[in-house]
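Final report, section 2: Outcomes. Of the targets proposed, Two-component system response regulator YesN is the one most frequently requested by collaborating groups, and we therefore present its record in full.
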Amino acid sequence: MISLLIVDDQKHQVDSLATTMPWEQYGITKIHTAYSGQSASEIIRTHPIDILITDIRMPGISGLELIEYANEQNKKVDCILLTGYAEFEYAKQAIELHAIYYLIKPVRDEVLLDAISKIVDKRQNERQQHQIFEYATSIVHQNLPLLKENLLLELLQNTDISINQLTDKLDMYRIPIAYGQLVKMAAIKLDPYFYESYGAADMKLLQFAVLNMAEELLSEPFHIWACIAPQGHLIMLLLPKLKEGQSDVQWDSAQENIWLSLANKLTENVDYYLKGQITVYVSNPAQFPEEIHSAYSSIVSKLMKSNQQRGMIVSAHQPTPDRDIKPLRSLYEQPLLLRLMDTGNREKLNLKLSDIFAELEHSQSDSHAHLREAYLHMLSCFTYLAHKKGKVLEDIIGTASNRAEHNVIHSAKLLKAWSLVILDALFDEGPLHVDDNHRQLVNKIHSFIEQHLGTDVTLQSIGDSVYLNAIYLSQIYKEITGENLSEYILRVRMEKAKILLEQSSYRIYEITERVGYQSSQHFIRTFKKYYGVTPEIYRKR
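The predicted structure is given below as tokens.
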């Protein structure tokens, strides 16, 4: 809908234009008229006006003054000036005031309508561009956390990005860090306990929980820009906020003490609320953005080489018990893991793995670098054995081989369980000897099912949580427990439904949702088949 205001001190000319022209054909549905500049300015003040047709010379307020008033009111009005005087000064002022057309009276109808048509087309194009811009802006706003995280990851990995591109993105993403400012980088390393206790999806939630805790604690004295690094560590850039009277940001002793106090508080909060510990590594001040990649490389090197220093704050200038990295001795001593796989002697293989994990768990104290060394060495051996048997490793562990490093290298216990499960599959043994590792796998499966019973319990989702192919997961679960996994899931659902019927006032459709069924009819049929009666009858017993 477009609105038009026609202004002239000649009443008959205003009325004639308002009533005789086919305005509706051009999308103009609202027409205002005024016979003086004064009354026109009131209409502009109180009504949304899109197009203004005005005479220049009028008593009191002239057409040029009227356009100037509309501009002062921030009204986006397109103006057509009508005048009987072809004077240069008028034309000059019209241009300065951004009038669209300057027409000499008398104006032929087709000339005026052609001007109107072009203005309408221009406004429609502007409206479309504005809508596109608003849509793009809303998309950016909706995805702002992800966009900010990806930009920080680019800087950490030294991705080539121009100064102009980075400046534009910092402004668009509302990141209050400028070129040349000194920032500190903090890397948060999570306790192996978290990785041993939570699946991949839950770990994502836990990582976000830790970052939220950090932002709540640190956001008052510091600007914070955070991301989750590829290795699973949490990375934050910290910039002190300007205090009253300050003209430049400084990392002075006061800021250092504030940071240290809050970082210690963060470790305490994580321990109290999430029941696990973190270690925080902090860099020296680094110039943004030139020194960000080198600061990241330095802090990750320190993090990878360090033994687990749980609950500590490790600053760049502090002496740490880090030592020179040496190869994991047990990997390269005779007999080699690869040779044992060639011979197929499972007993000696188990002894070899016991030696490797004993060194990892005791001598190296879960050193992140040595966990990755062991993981890559074993993955290479497993791949060799799979190929030798005419298989692809992904047939056994699915896509877990591509993402396992982000999970199993955080804990020697997880790596051990992962390796033994894959060996079982590769050697295609008969009934499994159920040991602690297999019991741990079954416990993790049962825990996942209990936690996700009302949402997402499928072979695929369970397999993803323990890094196993869904088909192989089903097979190994049957061999360990003697029960089909689908039967166990059904039994858990039915037992929970029975308890809810006995001990709660939930309606049938509510119980349906809580035990993971989409349809009440399907739940009722399944319950009747399992217990011999419908849920309603069972409740009345």
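The domain at 176-315 is CATH 3.30.70.270 (Alpha-Beta Plaits).
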